[in-house]
Here is the input.
Amino acid sequence: DTEVTQTPKHLVMGMTNKKSLKCEQHMGHRAMYWYKQKAKKPPELMFVYSYEKLSINESVPSRFSPECPNSSLLNLHLHALQPEDSALYLCASSQRGPDSGTFYNEQFFGPGTRLTVL
Amino acid sequence: EDKVVQSPLSLVVHEGDTVTLNCSYEVTNFRSLLWYKQEKKAPTFLFMLTSSGIEKKSGRLSSILDKKELFSILNITATQTGDSAVYLCAVEAIAGKSTFGDGTTLTVKP
Here is the structure.
C-alpha cells in the first residue's frame, strides 16, 4: 500500500465548531507532516511528527492541535478557526524521521482536505 | 530565512517542445532538493537531488543540481498535454523541514 489517505475530502465548519482531520498511511513511514496550502500558493509546513513525537511546530496558532496516536495515524484537531484558515490541508509521510540523522526520502502526499470556515 | 525561488512562474508551450524549469535557493545546512508535480490535488514526487552534477532521469524528465551555484533545473523533453501541472521545487535544510518555491505553472497546448 503506497498511499496516504485523508478524511474528509471536504469540510465546511463554523467558527465555533470543533472538527478533526484524519490522515493514515501503511507504508511504515515514521515521519508524518501537516501542510496548509492556499490557492495558487505552495504548501506551507505546519507540523512534523517523527516517531510519533512532535518534532517541528512552525509557530502554528493553538486553534490547530496535532495528534499522532500511532505510527500510522495523524490527526489535526480544529477549534475556533477563522475564515482565513480556509485552505487545502495536506498530510504527507516519509520513510525516515528527521531525528534519524540520515537523509530521508521523498514525502508522499495525501489528496488533502478542502476546508472552508464560514 | 531559507528562500527558494522558481522561474519562470508560468510557461505555455506546444506539444513536442522542450522546457527547462529553474529553481534557485538560499538555505543554511542544505540537505536535499526535491521536485514535485502538482496537478489538481496532492504533489507527487519526481526527483530528489543531494549531489552536484549527477543527472537524474525518469522517462522524458531529468534534473540536475549545482550546489556551488545553488540551483537546480528540471527538463522535460517532447512535452505532452499530460505534463500540464504546477512544478514545485522544495529544499530541505533542517531535518524534516522543506521550504517550497512558488512553483512554475506549465501549460502544454495540443
The first strand of chain B starts at residue 3 and ends at 7. Residues 3 and 26 of chain B are 5 Å apart (CA to CA). The two ends of chain B are 41 Å apart (CA to CA). The interface with chain A takes residues 31-32, 34, 36, 41-45, 48, 50, 88, 90, 94-103 of chain B (CB under 8 Å).
